[in-house]
Amino acid sequence: MSRQDQPEGAGPSPADRGPFESFQAWLSRTAEILTGSSMELPNYDPNRHSPIVSFSGLSGCEELDRYWLNVPFAYVSINHDPEANENLYYVVEPSLDELELELLDRLFDDVRDPLLYRDDVSDDPEQALRDELRKRLEEYGVNVPDESYYRLFYYLYRTFLGYGKLDPLLNDPHIEDISCDGADLPIFVYHDEYTDIETNVSFGDEELDNFVTHLAQRAGRHISVSDPVVSTTLPIGARAELALGEEVTPRGSAFTLRKYSEEPFTPIDLLEYGTFDEHMLAYLWLAIENNKSLIFAGGTAAGKTTSMNAVSMFIPPRSKVLTIEDTRELSLYHDNWLSSVTRERMDDADITMYDLLRSALRHRPEYIIVGEVRGEEAITLFQAMNTGHTTFSTMHADSVQTVINRLENEPINVPRPMVQSLDVLCVQVLARSQGQRVRRAKSLAEIEGIDDRTGELNVSKSYSWTASEDVFTESNSDLLDEIRTELGWSQSDLLTELRNRRRFLLYLKAKGVDDYRRFTAMVNKYYADPKEVMEMIDDDEIEVSA
Fold first, then answer.
1. 462, part of any domain
2. Which residues contact 498 (CB under 8 A, 6 or more apart)?
3. Which of 105, 128, 161 is the last residue of a domain?
């Protein structure tokens, strides 16, 4: 079930497309039930078969975009309603006629058990579903056209192997968030081009309860009226916040899904999207290599976890890395990586981030990455910093001062002398610049220690973002001077190394090396022999200046 870029024009309407309209066809089907049938089904061929899905447009709306979500079964038509001055995300799926609906209703019951209890669980689930559908239709004695078979297959696949009504949305790589606020309400999505947009997808009351329960089960979690709220991660990697019934959400069950890229972003992606420039990334690379601790702060959907995951690819090869999260979001391409996740609501045996962090210190990690600090685990995290461990984490805050205030006050309560062990603080924002919504590193700040006169923390910004011009400005960095001293470099050595790393990053950008495996391999190669890598860049025809 792959995706392509652009669906063809609308095909024939359901009333025009198949042989099920006539009474004679119905009589023929009934006769076939008595005799049985045998089906030989080729793969779908757009040159031979009629379109499986059709759509004639929305009345009074202008279509802005159309692209496949699941070829050849479903696509999206994004429309603008000039009267309401709003956009609509309209999912187009196959329409079923009366006989197909009756067949589908029976197939749901007859196919479920063979799929659940098949002998060879190593079978390809999709092929197993195809085989079961063919067998059932043969048993029913119904000879359906190929197009009907594919339509039936799509809805069975969507139900048993996919995520039901939500499956098309989850197949859209442009969607970041999916939000359902209650029963009989339209689902909203956050689209990377059209931002917040209403869809034509909704759930009835009982249907929504069942779907939320199903999502929890798919994630291996329990949800009930007595325990109605669950935060978890789905098998596809999406983070899910679920609420069942009307106990905590008066309009009925609700959920929000945060999708993540199937492959993690790399620093080259951050460079391409303008979240950071090459100067900032070279700075962070040198800081990470030399064991400086970082916190990425920002509001919801500012991209702080994505950035932290991306720059973690600068961690030197074979360094021992341990990650701690409450929902699985981090993905590192690192040989010596131990991932740990909290366990909640298991009687008195909850395993919290605080528990995992204390345990982590016994694994002797060189780098500790904590998904987000909110409470008592922050004390242990800063204790780890003070004892020589390099730590990365995220926090919800929109400015440098807000981060410091949150760290020093309830419920985190990190003592000020411990806060000064933090080296770099990156504040990210989701903002508008030049008419577009963008994610930017608003500032990279350095914690320089406690002022002897005022007792306040001294903080300086090494990089700042100017929204009106969408540019980053650089200031003097005491941290780079500290690294230079630790390594015994001259100022010229430091500037040469920073320039080489900027050129390296720009070279990978020019070559299109944004796959995390290739990127990590190149970083490891640089660590092994930087001179050879720079000579390779010099010898390449691509002109790179930094």
1. no
2. 279, 282, 283, 286, 480
3. 161
